[in-house]
Design brief:
Dihydrodipicolinate Reductase, domain 2, about 30% helix, single chain, five-stranded mixed beta sheet, alpha+beta, about 20% strand, 5 helices
Length: about 170
Amino acid sequence: MNTMVPEASIPSHQGPDAKTVRPELDVVTIAAKAAHTQTHNHFWTLQLTRPVSREEVLAALGAAPRIAFIRMADGLTALNTTVELMRDLARPRGDMWEVALWEDVLSVEGDEAYLTYQVGNEAIVVPETVDAIRALSGAVTDGATSIAMTDEVLGVRQAFLPAVVHA
């Protein structure tokens, strides 16, 4: 408990793993092991091709069907609070199939964006695995169609809580 251990080398395995799928990615990943077992927390600094607004970054991320915005202002202030929310939503095993991105933490300065997000260690791979099986079997050949089918069956959302204006 109360220990965080930096990974022994940079890059961590996530960047090279991502490059096996998208070789053109210019990414360096750094990781640490900490006293949590149900989810991962990621911190990103993005170098963009031009200066952008925070709203533009949020719109681009919001266009991805499996990113769900969460807000600290809603009490989702730590990894365990999101895990508990998945249980409250009656998700099987408390699964979170979406990438939960802290909307109110995201910051943009010129051509750099800073964000943090959470993924469920086991559940995050489920939707893509279902889509991959469909693609490999030839059952559904259009990616967007498969994603929509999977997301509907699983109940994947882009928001876990209704938008609330906080005073």
